Amino acid sequence: MHSSRKRNILLVLAFSILAFVVMGYHPGIEDDSVYLAAVKSNMNPALYPHDAEFFRTQLQATLFDKWVAGFAYWTGIPVAATELLWQFASIALILFGCWSIARTLFRDWRAQWAGVAMVGAMLTLPAAGTALYLADQHLHPRNVATAIILLAVSRILAEKRWQAAPLLLLSFVLHPIMAAMGISFCIFLTLAMMEPLQDWLRKQRWTGSSATAAAFVPLGWMFEKPTPLWRQALDTRDYYFLSRWAWYEWLGAIAPLFLFFLLWRIAEKQGKTLLARFALAVFAYGVFQQAVAMAMLGTPALVRLTPLQPMRYLHLIYFFMVLIAGSLAGKYLLKARIWRWALFLLIVNGGMFAAQKQQFSGSKHLELPGRQSANPWLQAFDWVRQNTPTDAYFVLDPRYMAAPGEDYHSFRALAERSQLADALKDTAVVTQVPELGPVWKTQVDAQAGWSSFKLADFERLKKEFGVNWALVSYPQPAGLQCRWHNDLLAVCQIP
Predict the structure, then answer these.
(1) Is 206 exposed, middle or buried (0-12, 13-18, 19+ CB in 10 A)?
(2) Is 115 exposed, middle or buried (0-12, 13-18, 19+ CB in 10 A)?
(3) How is the beta sheet containing 489-493 ordered, strand by strand?
(4) Count of H helices and E strands in the chain?
(5) CA angle 312-316-318, nearest 5°?
(6) Which helix (H) or strand (E) holds 419?
């Protein structure tokens, strides 16, 4: 018994290491501009004396940043190492949760571990048009919440439902919206496991809606009246609007529901009751949440709810789809043939590894703490962090994240300095926190025409907002006093 347990733990760790290497590690990118900055602000309140609202306000509904900062503080582990540790731990917990589900649904060990291997390889698979990966390449509360939700699902499948409740509560305090989706699915799964089909169908309307409504409880400010600036920010996010989804994104939303419908019917005919009930729960959950999403996103009066992104329900469905697909491949295709397993692992991991290398072509695949970066943007951020005053207030290209080779790294999170609002990531924050709209609009408009800025423009920004440093292209505009540069960028003081 003990040897079997040790073997299982070692296999989870092995697949977790492989998954981590395949997906890469990129702290400070995308959403981490908010979360990592918040963690660092909690650790050192002297950071970010200007415009900290662009990451603080959005995190009022989660304890994630306080938890990470508290862990780093009480253990004495640096923030960079803490982020790395919990990123790996979240991957390991995700795969352990998947194995726990697969172990219940499939008796064949080859099916169980093929499902885990498939999920590990596919963690950077996009979920249709939602702009979500199965897991992010940096520590994100969604990663941790997903792991906890998967564990809760495994507890329900194991008929230990009382153990799922505290897990779902924990996921809720980390990521309320994703947790609400998990709660909704767990209700559908519980009904599919406990009730006759007729009763389950009769109850699904109110159970699902109550779970979805739970997401709104800590986010009451989202019901405020829309403003023109909020609508302008919202319009920059095509994935919020179903009418802007491409046909293949719609296919990615509908096809999994059809596949789980087929799995339900086939498993039922074959007498695989538990698998059939699980597939039915996924199908019913998907149909219900799709109806909710279309009602929310298609009703003008409900436009204020758009940032909740109800199509996020696909995130869980994609996890289950990948897990079941891998398990079925292990059972019927791979079997006990070593060469088939080797080819399978090479194809799924090699393909996703190559895709990630291409996506982050300007950065190291594993941006581990202490490693020197060849990325000129990260070199500049590093110099700023180590050589400028804590209260320095920077201005830089408002669209710098989309610059070639920048790879969407956040200046605010990595340089640890205040900056004027940008036109990309801070725009997403405004969709969540409308009261920041006027500040965001004023600051972004003041940076219009950045590529042709001269000394007088920087002096204007200093007078209007108080910025006293700039990160600019090298060679810098005449008149700026530059303290450092590489072949691409220069860090300068504004006189």
Answers:
(1) exposed
(2) buried
(3) 418-419, 393-396, 469-473, 489-493, 481-485
(4) 20, 5
(5) 100
(6) strand 418-419
Runs of H (alpha helix) within 195-272: 197-214, 228-234, 247-269
pLDDT attached to residue 380: 96
- Name the one residue in this structure whose structure tokens are 């895709």: 355
Question: Is the pLDDT score of 11 beyond 80?
Answer: yes
pTM of the model: 0.90
At 365, is the pLDDT very low, low, confident or very high (cuts 50, 70, 90)? very high
* Torsional sign, CA 384, 389, 390, 392: negative
Name the percent of the chain in helix, strand, coil, to the closest 5: 70, 5, 25
pLDDT tens readout for residues 270-308: 989 999 999 999 999 999 999 998 888 887 777 777 777
Flag the least confident range among 149-153, 187-191, 234-238.
Answer: 234-238
Pairing of strands 489-493, 469-473: antiparallel
CB 422 within 8 A of CB 399: yes
Whole-angstrom CA distances from 111 to 106, 418, 477 are 6, 50, 62
What is the Rg, in whole angstroms, of the alpha carbon atoms belonging to the chain?
A: 24
Q: What is the dihedral of CA 169, 32, 77, 57, to 10 degrees?
A: -60
> What are the extents of the domains in the chain?
12-359, 376-493
- Give the tokens for residue 97: 């949760």
- Tokens representing 424? 């990309």
Please, what is the angle between helix 273-298 and helix 313-329, to 10°? Answer: 150
Provide CB contacts within 8 A for 60, sequence distance 6+.
218
In the chain, the amino acid numbered 457 is D
Calpha distance 181→311 (Å, rounded): 10
- Encode 93-102: b = buried (16+ Cβ within 10 Å), e = exposed: bbbbbbbbbb
Q: H helices of 46-175, where?
A: 53-56, 64-75, 79-105, 109-121, 141-157, 161-174
Residue 73: both structure tokens together:
């503080």
Q: Which residues contact 9 (CB under 8 A, 6 or more apart)?
A: none
The rounded mean pLDDT for the chain is 89
Q: Is the per-residue pLDDT at 198 higher than 70?
A: no
CA–CA dist 378, 411 (Å, integer) = 9
pLDDT above 70 for 202: no
Q: Is the dihedral of CA 232, 237, 239, 243 positive or negative?
A: positive
The rounded distance, in Å, linking the Cα atoms of 60 and 244 is 30
Mean pLDDT confidence for 13-40: 95
